[in-house]
User: Which sequence fits this backbone?
């Protein structure tokens, strides 16, 4: 008999039908009640076996984690806690699970423990909910751009340009590290390497995206990116996914409008389509926050926080305005910030970003027009201000509990200005000739941004560590499974 997904059965109204479900045992109580989960829903279905007529040895094999197939009649449940259940006619063990050795027990496990068994954590409610929401958000992103006529462009994962300036890179090589081919001066001879040159894993698809935008008008990439920075934080991964739209004829305001509407669209999509999961995650977060002192708990529960984000427009201020707010802020005056804000030009740390969002404005904030010296070479240069300070048309979106979720800018489209900046920043202009061709031939104003996918999932699920929103996290000294 064809199997029915548990999610569909839990909503079924047609009692008396014969159904088959296949899944994994969550619990087996009173030698009678099996809670089965097949991953389709965060909720289990209850199957009731008649132990008087079932072989003792079969019942013994109904352990937590065992894979089973159950066929029987779908009936209205008399017990509390579920609407429907299956009266088991046929029971088959598809895969035994040694209860003594199975690491997942029907009790609460810490997220840290589950991270060590990442291959099994999918079977828990928390991770079922997290990865369902992740899936919905990925789909919503494609849906949003598709509805707007953007072209989904696949940027390369292996790149030969090591000048994007976004972070440290992972080298890609087939050179035998025990027998490195060398030039006469002792340097590595990459001509002998697979691509005949030095190559790396990409840190961003933006530069390739710019080429496509200047032909298709509006494009986006959505793929894995790699950064070999040694940041062991709850916000950084060495391998993460990024969404990078790039649009010809957009200025910075158009860029901010697009980013804000994308974020609101996908959050709305999750609220509309992941009700059960978000309810569960809301409860999880409430539990987690009970462990914290009162003043560190959030004012809003998860779902209210998501709705709040939809109902309010993001605050848009310049870096210079932000510095003024931070300088005169209480934690700066009382020297509570780890990094005190003294001068214009300072890079903002996450404590500053979170102060602006969580304490000062109490909503998402878009910071624009950063000092040129702390931003990438490709950003559009503003005229120097009355104090001779140079800024660029950058925009970072800061979210409560997350800090920076989006980084983007209008791009410098004037060849000479861009080349001058690259030279100042020691970026090899020659090697980037393919990129500069966009500025040589039919250059136009354009803009784009990068949305960190895991940071988005972190925000929507209310999880607190980025390692818990990607199936197989890669971080310094950790690439298990
Ligand atoms: O600000 P970033 O470095 O911007 C870029 O890479 C540009 N090329 C984007 C563009 O304009 N097309 O990264 C963009 C976003 C950040 O705002 C953050 O959300 C996320 O990517 N991000 C990370 N997420 C997880 N782990 C890391 N190590 C991340 N680094 C950046
Ligand atoms: Mg950034």
Assistant:
């Amino acid at each position: 008999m064809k199997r029915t997904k548990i999610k569909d059965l839990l909503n079924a109204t047609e009692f008396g039908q014969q159904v088959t479900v296949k899944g994994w045992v969550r619990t087996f109580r009173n030698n009678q009640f099996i809670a089965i989960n097949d991953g389709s829903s965060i909720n289990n279905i209850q199957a009731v076996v008649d132990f008087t007529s079932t072989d003792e040895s079969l019942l013994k094999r109904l352990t937590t984690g065992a894979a089973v197939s159950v066929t029987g009649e779908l009936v209205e449940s008399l017990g509390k806690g579920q609407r429907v259940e299956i009266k088991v006619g046929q029971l088959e063990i598809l895969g035994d699970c040694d209860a003594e050795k199975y690491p997942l027990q029907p009790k609460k496990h810490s997220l840290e423990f589950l991270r060590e068994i990442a291959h099994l954590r999918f079977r828990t409610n928390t991770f079922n909910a997290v990865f369902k929401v992740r899936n919905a958000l990925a789909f919503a992103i494609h849906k949003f751009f598709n509805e707007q006529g953007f072209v989904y462009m696949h940027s390369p994962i292996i790149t030969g340009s090591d000048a994007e300036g976004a972070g440290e890179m992972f080298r890609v090589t087939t050179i035998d590290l025990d027998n490195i081919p060398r030039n006469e001066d002792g340097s590595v001879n990459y001509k002998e390497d697979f691509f005949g040159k030095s190559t790396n894993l990409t840190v961003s698809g933006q530069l390739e995206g710019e080429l496509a935008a200047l032909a298709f008008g509006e494009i986006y990439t959505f793929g894995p990116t790699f950064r070999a920075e040694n940041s062991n934080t709850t916000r950084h991964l060495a391998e993460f996914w990024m969404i990078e739209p790039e649009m010809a004829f957009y200025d910075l305001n158009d860029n901010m409008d697009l980013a804000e509407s994308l974020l609101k669209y996908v959050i709305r999509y999750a609220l509309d389509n992941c009700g059960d999961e978000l309810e569960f995650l809301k409860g999880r977060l409430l539990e987690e926050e009970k462990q914290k002192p009162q003043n560190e708990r959030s004012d809003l529960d998860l779902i209210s926080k998501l709705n709040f984000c939809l109902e309010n427009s993001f605050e848009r201020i310049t870096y210079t305005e932000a510095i003024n707010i931070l300088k005169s802020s209480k934690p700066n005056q009382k020297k509570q910030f780890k990094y005190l804000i003294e001068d214009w030009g300072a890079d903002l740390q996450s404590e500053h970003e979170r102060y602006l969002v969580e304490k000062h404005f109490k909503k998402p904030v878009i910071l624009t027009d950063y000092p040129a010296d702390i931003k990438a070479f490709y950003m559009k240069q503003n005229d120097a201000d009355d104090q001779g300070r140079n800024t660029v048309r950058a925009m970072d979106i800061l979210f409560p509990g997350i800090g920076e979720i989006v980084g983007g800018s209008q791009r410098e489209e004037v060849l000479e200005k861009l080349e001058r900046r690259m030279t100042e920043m020691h970026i090899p202009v020659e090697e980037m000739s393919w990129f500069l061709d966009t500025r040589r031939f039919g250059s136009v104003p354009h803009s784009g941004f990068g949305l960190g996918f895991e940071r988005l999932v972190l925000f929507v699920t209310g999880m607190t560590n980025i390692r818990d929103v990607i199936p197989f996290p890669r971080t310094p000294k950790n690439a298990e499974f």
